[in-house]
Amino acid sequence: GLASAAIDVSDGLASDLRHLLEASAVGAEVDPSLLPLSEAYRAAVPDDEQQSLALQGGDDYELCFTVPASSRQRVEILLNDLGIPVTRIGSVVEGSGIHWLGRDAERLPSRGYRHFTGEM
To answer: Taking the mean position of all CA atoms in its chain, how far away is CA 104?
Structure first.
């Protein structure tokens, strides 16, 4: 009862977050530098491709959810008590679409994995 919206990111964060935003008629500001990337991922993927691949790649089996600012601390405490890691990567804003924050924002993807084409 704390999340206001949620979606799995099995088709990639860029694609699935866009679906959530469109259904909610809002936009988001996202800082890709805050994405929790594992050490194994960082070792396997070249530095200049890490953010783009993390945003587009599918089969992550993670959840992206939104929580009203008034509930954020409560959610963080609850998930911490349950041993579930959570990372805040952005904010819901008025408008539409995803607004990437950071120095490489203009080159980041607008969509995720496309099942029937195999393209990202």
So the answer is: 16
Q: Do 19 and 114 touch, CB atoms closer than 8 A?
A: no
Residue 112's pLDDT is: 52
Compute CA distances 23 → 27, 29, 39, 59, 65, whole Å. 10, 16, 34, 22, 13
Q: 5: which strand partners?
A: 66
- Cα distance between residue 99 and residue 82, in whole Å: 31
- E strand segments, the chain: 5-8, 27-30, 63-66, 90-93, 97-100
CB-count burial class (<10 Å; 0-12, 13-18, 19+) for 18? buried
Q: For 19-67, how does the pLDDT look when each residue is reduced to its tens digit (9 = 90+)? A: 999 999 999 999 998 999 999 999 999 998 888 888 888 777 789 999 9
Judged by phi (left if over 0) then psi (alpha if -120 to 50, else beta), residue 97 lies in: left
Q: What are the backbone dihedrals phi and psi of residue 6, each rounded to the nearest 5 degrees, phi first?
A: -155, 150
